[in-house]
Amino acid sequence: FWSQVEREAGFRAMDRITPHRIVQAGDRPRDLPVGEPLAINVDAFMEAEKTAGLLVLQDGRVRLERYGLGFGPQQRWTSFSVAKSVTSILVGAAIHDGSIESLDAPIVRYLPELSGGAYDGVTVRQLLTMTSGVMWNEDYTDPASDVARFFEPHPTVGMDPTLAYMRGLGRTAQPGTGWRYSTGETSLVGVLVSRATGRSLAEYLSQMIWRRYGMEADAAWMIDEAGQEPGGCCLVASLRDWGRVGQFVLDGGVAGGKSVVPNDWFQQATRKQADIGEPGSGYGFQWWTSDDGTFSARGIFGQTLHIDPERKLVVVILSAW
Question: Is the pLDDT of residue 153 over 80?
């Protein structure tokens, strides 16, 4: 509901507008060497799309890096729902280190406050693929929608705010039988990871990826009134570090010479696991998938992390549509 001026100013300053927890980087940034420049003019695209940052990596090399809207390489931009795909990676890490038993574990094992409601019988896999069958309204233009009310203060009866809101929802389908996009559901995934690992999402992300893979700058993750990061939203990072996230995925989740996730994690996570009703497209473990083998993390107002394994290509777009 912000104006265009407010978006362009606010998206680079979210960690000063709302409370965030720092995701610490290490002291050895991973190099992004310069590759052959792309001979294309992106000025009109960036102006039309209100683009703050555009980065193209191929074979781990920078082929295009451009900034707009007064944004620069030392600044951070909010990701909105691109964070969902990062939260998904942390699930893979938690399974790999034994904190989460498996994709088919029931979520109430880790979140017992949800027992007796619509999430009975829902598995970690079904949360990741947004096929829980639980009600949710993601209409961003409706101030009465779930996605709008979810981030507002609401009664928690002494419970984590995410759990308090989500446990009150009803069911529209049996688990695993239908897909419904839900930011609240990914925030449940975030609480699950925090519970299972005993760490905040920011701390776990720093430990497993940010320091180990060599991000060059600290990131920050928004926190709610209880100090919990919403797994479905609002991780802020630099353009180049978003590119490194994509390169980490292309590298199969290996950082510091060790696998962070199970060996087949990204083969599963980035292929179609749920039918979203659009020909040629699908949904994986919090990744938007295409039948051509490419996949993307996407956030409202034009945030994109697009990955093409065949061409060893990563494209990052940060915008204020």
Answer: no
